[in-house]
Amino acid sequence: MQEPLISVIIPARNSSNTLREAVLSIVNQTYKNLEILIIDDFSTDNTLEVATKLSQQDPRLKVYSSDLNDDQRFDKKLNRNINAGYSARNTGFSHVNGEFITFQDADDVSLLNRVEIQYTLLKKHDATHLSLDWQKYEESLIGTSIDLELFTEALKNYKTPKDLYSMAIRSKGCVAKISKKLNSSVPFNIKRMRVINKLFFGTLESYPGAGNSPLFKKEVIEKVQFRPLSDRIWPSFMGRGADRDFNFQVAETFKNSYVFSIPTYLWRQETQNKLYK
What we know:
277 residues; alpha/beta; Glyco_trans_2-like; hexosyltransferase activity
């Protein structure tokens, strides 16, 4: 019996130099029944051209353009991009055909059995939403798989739905608990102000694991979508936080999320995950 179709959404903005590597890490997954959706997020380089050429090499690849060119993408007061692919991911949701959905960032890489491990664990635990973990991007790890036999403790000691629901509740600001509408009406730069911020932020703990690449049932998107910064209940304190907001929202809504500390995602950043040093 063929395994169910999994849709992989890849938001891409000005990612022409890294997109091919990211896409190939999904194309070559050990789990083969994939639909791969590259969402060009109003790139100003040749990202769309690279994506189109890749789609001609594998029938599982499809290319779309983001529905929303967020005119508030760059926040001058915070001096940073606060979109970070949230609208492109929602565009991806409108095109998915898979029974399950996951993501891949256009500047990172997945180990080759990332999706297989996620699906196996999701099925085993009858989870609605499941994340693994990340390690620092290393060129030598591209095109490799992870040996699950090395992670017996991680398979026994993991974040349960109860753990993640509790995290979501204690990370939620008082104002959001009272009124989502009121929470959305206050500008983010005001929410961050000294003393006042205690009303809009609970604990500032991160969603554990690789929050940018969860695997979840398609039913999730009927109730949970990515939100603009003004509407996020769990943003990061410095802005953005679209992944944090999405994952905590799912954990609270469905009460059936899991996280396993198995580092199958290669994240381009300067420091190694402290769990794997």
